[in-house]
Amino acid sequence: MEIYINQEKKVIDGEISINDLLSFLEIQNKYIAVEVNKTIIPKSEYEIFIVKNNDKIEIINAVGGG
Questions:
Q1: How far apart are alpha carbons 52 and 61 in whole angstroms?
Q2: CA-wise closest residue to 31 among 17, 47, 48, 43
Q3: How many beta carbons lie within 10 A of that of residue 45, not counting itself?
Q4: Hey, how many other C-beta atoms are within 10 angstroms of the C-beta on 51?
Q5: What CA–CA distance (Å, rounded) separates 64 from 8?
Q6: pTM reported for the whole predicted model
Q7: Which three-class secondary structure state does DSSP give residue 14?
Q8: Of 16, 21, 52, 57, which has the fewest Cβ atoms less than 10 A away?
Q9: 56 φ, ψ to 5°?
Q10: Helical segments of 1-66, H only
Q11: Measured between alpha carbons, how far is 28 from 23 in angstroms, rounded to an integer?
């Protein structure tokens, strides 16, 4: 399956949840937001939300500042 993560094409074998995708990419899900096809996915759904072929995923890191 082909997906796009931060505008970069990746090939993933089989179905994968957002939680598993973050683990695969070695990204901690603390202080991030995940958007799939321009819809922000709540962290409570990371375990059950299954990524589909050609999904466009944006992983955004929260930064503090002032």
A1: 22
A2: 43
A3: 13
A4: 19
A5: 26
A6: 0.88
A7: coil
A8: 52
A9: -105, 115
A10: 18-24
A11: 7
Report which of 16, 19, 54, 18 is spatially closest to residue 37, judged by C-alpha positions.
54
pLDDT tens per residue, range 2-28: 999 999 999 999 899 999 999 999 998
User: What's the one-letter identity of residue 2?
Assistant: E
Given the DSSP bridges, would you call strands 2-5 and 56-61 parallel, antiparallel or unpaired? parallel
Contacts of 55 (CB under 8 A, 6+ apart): 3, 4, 36, 37
Q: Tokens standing for 35?
A: 């958007």
| 19 neighbors 29 (Cβ within 8 angstroms) | yes
Name the token pair of 46: 């990371």
Give residue 15's identity as a one-letter amino acid code: E
